Amino acid sequence: MTLKARITEDMKTAMKAKDTARLGAIRLLLAAIKQKEVDERADMDDAAIIAVIDKQMKQRRDSVSQYEAAGRQDLADKEKAEMDVFAAYLPQPLTDAEIDALIHDAIAATAAAGMGDMGKVMGVLRPQLAGRADMGAVSARIKSALAGR
User: Fold this and answer.
1) Cα–Cα distance for residue pair 53/28, rounded to 1 Å
2) What average pLDDT is seen over the chain?
3) Based on CB atoms within 10 Å of each CB, which residue in 28, 49, 61, 93 is the most buried?
4) What domain of life (predicted)?
5) The predicted structure's pLDDT at residue 111
6) Per-residue pLDDT band at 149 (split at 50, 70, 90)
7) Rounded Cα–Cα distance for residues 6 and 53 (Å)
8) Are 93 and 54 a contacting pair, CB within 8 Å?
9) Contact (CB, 8 A) for 3 and 50
């Protein structure tokens, strides 16, 4: 079963269970996927859907921090609930050790010699880490690894 089919089935299950919070989050996710398909005029594979989910998660993280800074815990809690629903569709996150090993391998594969080669390293890592790690944190780790070169 494709990821999109699984999300659609979960939407139907949420409808039957009258789980309005989960249903709303799944509908938001399906709308984002549909919008991306319309924009690109093509059906999306699981990897592209994971990229959309990852983008939605990042938007929610940003919203949560802004809502909490503004003292709107009710809205922050709603965003966190949506993130919990979205997280169910992402692959298992990598551990710090696994991320460090992939960064080390990517630096060796690209023969990166300094900060100027960061784009090469990110290009190698992005497909491997999509949906499995926070790319902002990975970027910081790459910078610290390349700073020592």
Assistant:
1) 10
2) 91
3) 49
4) Bacteria
5) 86
6) low
7) 14
8) no
9) yes
Are the C-beta atoms of 83 and 60 separated by less than 8 Å? yes
The secondary element (H helix, E strand) that includes residue 65 is helix 46-69
**pLDDT (tens digit per residue) in 65-89:** 999 999 999 999 999 999 999 999 9
Q: Residue 130: is its pLDDT beyond 70?
A: yes
- Structural domains in the chain, CATH included, are 3-87 (1.10.1510.10), 96-147 (1.10.10.410)
- Token pair for 58: 């990042």
* Closest residue by Cα to residue 25 from 65, 46, 56, 4: 56
Structure-token pair, residue 49: 């859907």
The pLDDT score that the predictor gives to residue 83 is 95
What size, in residues, is the chain? 149
